[in-house]
Write a structure and sequence with these properties.
Layout: H1 7-14, H2 27-45, E1 52-61, E2 72-75, E3 91-95, E4 100-102, H3 103-106, E5 115-118, E6 123-126, E7 134-144, H4 152-169, H5 171-178, H6 185-203
Antiparallel strand pairs: 1-7, 2-6, 3-4, 3-7, 5-6
């Protein structure tokens, strides 16, 4: 199901009041294109704006980087995490030399305890004592994409990318968007794609690596 925008957001860009019930492009087709485009948006931004699960994400346990106030930071691949909950499949596992032990079972969560999270920035902090460098010593499963609503710029960028695709593939729409406008359809499509990609580029690197902790769990 489409989340980042809807078929009518795309229609508004194209000057269409309603999608046809039949033909090369219908409302249901647009919704499916939006769903697929959401994956493209996520890859371009390096983050997600809907519930996703990162399963068995590996990280090295660093031999340094220990901070007395917070522990050892492990920078996860995603930000805006949901509150850690082992009943929903979330896991923090540490290599003990022969297997991965589940820290949520053997340890205690909390800023002053064995592990805790900066949910907003996507950082796991560990207090496991001196262990030296352990390659792929940490394995984490967590949920991310914790937004109360999809940000407006992401709605716009997704709609622009889908509208550009419609205009490229549907000649009827290409003719429609050129009527009464000084900009040729090919140039309009290029401008839509550029605006969308500029927006997504500005979002990339949103995670503030090395920043001081924010919201915790």
């Amino acid at each position: 199901m489409a989340t980042y925008c809807n078929a009518m957001d795309v229609a508004a860009l194209l000057g269409i009041s309603a999608w046809p019930d039949a033909g090369p492009v219908t409302e249901s087709i647009i919704e499916s294109w939006i769903s697929r485009m959401e994956d493209v948006v996520d890859r371009k931004v390096g983050s997600s704006f809907k519930l996703q699960t990162s399963t068995d994400e590996y990280h090295d346990y660093p031999s340094s980087d220990y901070r007395a106030d917070v522990g050892v930071p492990i920078y996860l691949d995603h930000d805006n995490l949901f509150t850690f909950d082992s009943t929903k499949g979330d896991k923090v596992e540490v290599w003990d030399g022969s297997s991965y032990e589940q820290l949520q079972t053997t340890g205690t969560q909390g800023r002053g305890n064995d592990y805790w999270f900066d949910l907003k920035k996507g950082v796991l902090y560990l207090r496991l004592g001196s262990r030296g460098l352990i390659v792929q010593g940490i394995r984490v499963t967590y949920r991310h994409g914790n937004y109360s609503a999809v940000p407006g710029d992401i709605v716009d960028a997704t709609a622009l990318l889908v509208a550009a695709r419609v205009a490229i593939l549907d000649g009827t729409v290409a003719i429609l968007i050129s009527e009464g406008k000084d900009v040729p359809p090919e140039e309009r499509v290029r401008l839509w794609q550029k605006e969308a990609n500029d927006t997504l580029a500005s979002r990339r690197g949103f995670k503030s690596i090395g920043a001081l902790p924010g919201a915790i769990s």
